[in-house]
Structures are given as structure tokens and as C-alpha cells.
Specification:
Number of strands: 8
Largest sheet: 6 strands, mixed
Helix content: 40-55%
Strand order of the largest sheet: 6-3-4-5-8-7
Strand content: 5-15%
CATH class of the largest domain: Alpha Beta
CATH superfamily of the largest domain: Beta Polymerase, domain 2
Order of helices and strands: HHHEEHEEHEHEHHHHEEH
Structural class: alpha+beta
Amino acid sequence: MKRIEKAIIQTLVFFDILRRPLTLDEIWHYLYRQKASKLQVFMGLKDLLSKKIVGKTVSPKTGNIFYHLIGGSPMASKYFTNFSVSAQRWQKVAKVLKIIRLTPFVKMIAVINSLSYNNSRQDSDIDILIIAKKGRLWTARALMILMLEIIGQNKNQWYQAGKFCLGFAFDETRLDLRKIKFQDDIDFTYWLANLTPVYDRGIYHDLIEANHWLRQELPNWVEKKPPRIEPEKLKRIEKMLSGKFGDKLESWLAKIQIAKIWRDPQNKRRGASVIADAAMMKLHPYDQRQQRQKIWEQGLDKKIKMALK
């Protein structure tokens, strides 16, 4: 088997787990551990189509061709529906962003998980990540959640679909994410590649540089280029909340929020991936990364055997 064909299969097997077909450009962009041109990817797909390992579907709305595994998840029609839902969610993000970007000490806001893959269902929430200034993580998180609550957009036990979930945050001292990445963790690789900054004060590039391993995993991947924003009003507010008063406020807010996190039984359950310390907060009570890794490895083995026949 050609290396390019194996890389295409590796890529499609993972996205099959997410029920997400890919265009030619997307396969090239996300090609796993293989540097290649788009022409090489196209020729590899042509061979896999002839071997009936890969199939293709045309989007009824755009006419774009999407590729997927034959015998994989029945995903194409569902994805086209999810894509429409995602388009509506992106419009909502743009509206809500006008308010939450006013949160002091936030250096980046990014959309993560299903919406970052343009694969949101009607019952999906909108997951966001923030990077905060050093020593102000819990102040930034508390103020942003307060803003979301005021405008009725914070996810809670009563309202979830289409609401904002701030389940991952860290400050600028924790940009290197290898400590929370498993040794074999294809899920985390694509999670970081799909992380989409919607507000950036010049730290997104630093995040990617701190995780340079991503370029080795996805050598064709292109770093996003969000516009850099430096609001003058925020600088004045941040100056007021700096110093000893700001330190005491941060300490108080951290104590309250960390205690609340560890009181939640879901965060103590087996299989949960939860971090709550001075510089990072990660709430993932149902971490499926290792399960997806196993499914990916099993699916990969099956498809490669089929391709070698």
C-alpha cells in the first residue's frame, strides 16, 4: 500500500468516528503524519475509490464532494443537517462575542468540540475555551460566566442546547498542553487543530508554537490567522484590577470556584478528566479520548487489511 493511501485511511477512520465526511481540501489539510500535495491526495483517493474502500457523496446544497469510508458510519446526510445547525450557531457566536470579549484579562476566546468541526447537532451546546492573563484565570472565568448568565446564554442544568459552556480555561503560563495529552491521542491532535479562535489578543500563535508537535502529526495543517484585537477600555479596567486588590479578588474567586468544581460528583467519577488549579481549569466528566483511540486503531487495522487484498 502507498503511504499516501494509508494516511488517507488513517484520517478518514478518525473522522468516521465523529460521523464527519471530508472534502478533498479537508483531507489534505488534516492528512495524518504525511506531507503531500493536493494532487497526491486526489490520486490516492482515486485508487481507494476504485478499491471500494472510500466512497463519495455530493452535498445537495453546495454541490461539494465529500469522501467517507464505505461501510462506516451512515453520516453524510446527518452531517449536512449538522452543517446547517452549525452555520446558525456561528452566527450566534458572533453576536454573543460582542459582549463576552469585554471580559477583563481574557487573551483569547476559541470555539472547540463539535462546533469547531462544523458538526453541531440541534441538542449540542457551544463549547468555548479561554486563555487568561497570568494570575487572573479565575477572575476572567467568573466575569465571563456572569456576562453569559446576564444575557441568558450560560449552559446550566435546565438550559443546554445552543448555550455556551466554558469548560476549559487556562492562563498564559500553561500554553504547552502536552501534560494533558496522552501518548497515543489522535483525538487531542484533531481537537487542537480544529480549535477556532474568535477573539485573540496575540496569543493564539504562541499556543501553536508551544505545541509544535501538532505540525509533526499534521504536516499539511495551516495555522489559523485570527485578527489581533487590543481593546483600550479593557486595558484600563485590567489596570484597576491589578495589584494587591486584584490578587485578593483572584484568590477569593479561585477558592470559591475550585471548591464548587470538586463538590460536583460528576467530576469525581471514574473516567473523568478534571483539572482545577491556579492556572488551569478543565471539566471533562466523560473523557472519551482513550475509547476513541481504541476504536480508531481497530477501524484502521480493518480498513488497511481490506486495502491490501
